[in-house]
Request: fold
Amino acid sequence: MARRSPAGLWLVAAAVAGCAVFGGVMAMWPWERAVHKAVAPAPGAQALGAVAAGVPAALPDLAVLVGEREAFVRAHPRDARAWAVLGAAYVEQGRRTADASNYPRGERALRASLKVRGNGNVEAMDGMAALANARRDFRGARTWGEAALKAAPKRWTTYPLLIDAYTGLGDYKATKRMLDRLLELRSGPAVLARAGAVYRDRGWREDAAAALTDAAAAARSPAERAAWLERTGQLSFERGDLEDALRHFQEAVRIDPDQRAAEAGQGRALAGLGRPTEALNAYRVALAKQPCPQYALELGELYESLGLGQAARVQYDLLRARVREEAAGGVDDELVLGAFEADHGDPAAAVRRLRAEWRRQPGIAVADALGWALHRAGDDKEALRFATVATDRAHGGGVRSAPYLYHRGVIEQELEQYGPARRHLQEALRVNPYFSPLQVPLAKEALAALGDPPDEPLPSDEESKEPAEKER
Reply:
């Protein structure tokens, strides 16, 4: 899908030409050719443009913007827009650094903006929606996003926030509706990246890769380009193309050294390539600057796959500590904590956590995690119901996820549904044969235990008309 990107804003400095007077005789010298130089905006202005457009901003620029806005609101406490910008900058800082203490600061600033001007304050409403998404409070994000949309239906920056909220809530019809409207209102790299994410969730990998590649090529800043490169790398990893994924992750880090998600991505790719020492180093670098619980879980599982149980337990303890710290900032980490408990802790506790999470926000990731936790707790019959939701296109599970398919295949194997189990395990390893250093060997073992499919007669004409769902 090719779309023209809007032209960037450039400040032009015009050179001044003059004439010389010599010996009392005025001689007009030829005018010098005007020299046009693109003058880069100041760091605070760069971050302001990124925050206003809802795109990733460089961390040093964000720090400048926060300092500027903090000083400004002290002198102008009745400036609603300044408070909204400050709140949005805090949210972006929290997202980029995994420092959840930024979120209460952001909320205070955004509520100060709403207190000064409540009616029609769409910037503050968008900020509250972004904050809720960052905290994984998708219901809250939907409420704020819909209020902003009602106040300003043509404000394009609200649509990506609602896309994230509806995706987290498992409302894929609303997600499609928001994307369609966004594409009518706006073009450009941020819109392409958002479209790529939706296409990925639908299982349209080629379309997703094309959209993200175009977004990275058209990005207006190094931080934005690095973010879209990281997402492109993650898409490559999910389809098992490790060399391509590593190239994208490395390029993202090269142009934005603060792109820690790409550092963690390098860890995933290097582990799959059989380069564990480099993978461990990449994860350590990512965690040093962005101590995200998900990275701690991945690093712990990598250590465990290498037989380094004590080192793995250190990371699992770090995960628990980070979840507690993020909870103090209002972040909902029940999904990652439930996934951890299912495999490395108390599966029954994981089921309780994830059932509550499913009631709050029934997205595909939660369906998969809950299904797997139920399996680990011994309830495979109910587990299959959620695993099916996560992998069945009819229920919104269009994303081609090797872990989801592996989970479903193992559950079906336990239920003695050997045909579907074999099919889903084979598909998991075909989609991405490197999806997990711990689970890939288990997937191969499970598939080997199933053996070759039995020789069966071809179905009759009547049987062939039965829907594919019947054999599930």
The longest strand covers residues 11-13. The two ends are 36 Å apart (CA to CA).
